[in-house]
Write a structure and sequence with these properties.
This protein is an alpha+beta fold. The chain is built from two helices and nine strands, in the order αβββββββαββ. The chain has one domain.
């Protein structure tokens, strides 16, 4: 009888430990995932602001002005587009959109010609990793190239 009682107590203690540990693991995983998404969006926000600021700067400098930015693209960017020559938009894998308005016309090499999405970028342009962004002034717009 004593061995049975010890076994039941052991199972009870193991069950209580599991009841405490499993929800803790779940909460930690959700917090970690949410933090990674927020960090990625913050990095994309920084990248978008730098590109738009550089575009406005080279446009107002005029001539053959050019700025080269070395930026690190985070994980989680699904697409990168230019809407109606005035808005740089990052589409994220979690379904959110981060957009950056420009006071100057911005373009890219890949013309899409849609009513809303005028220009796009190749997948290599917004994939994770270090990117060289070349922002150069043209006659009436600014060309954004990502390599």
């Amino acid at each position: 009888m004593a061995r049975a009682q010890a076994s039941m107590e052991y199972l009870l203690v193991a069950g209580i430990v599991l009841l405490v540990i499993l929800p803790s693991i779940y909460i930690f995983y959700n917090y970690s995932h949410r933090s990674n998404v927020e960090i990625g969006q913050s990095q994309v926000d920084n990248i978008g602001k730098k590109i738009v600021d550089a575009a406005e700067e080279v446009y107002y400098l005029g001539g053959q002005s050019k700025i080269t930015l070395d930026l690190t693209m985070p994980e989680g960017v699904k697409n990168m587009e230019i809407w109606c020559n005035q808005k740089l938009v990052f589409l994220m894998e979690d379904g959110s959109e981060l957009s950056f308005n420009s006071r100057v016309n911005i373009t890219s090499d890949e013309y899409l010609g849609g009513p809303k999405v005028c220009y796009g970028f190749k997948e290599a342009s917004y994939s994770q990793g270090l990117k060289k962004v070349i922002v150069s002034a043209k006659m009436d717009n600014v060309l954004v190239e990502v390599r």
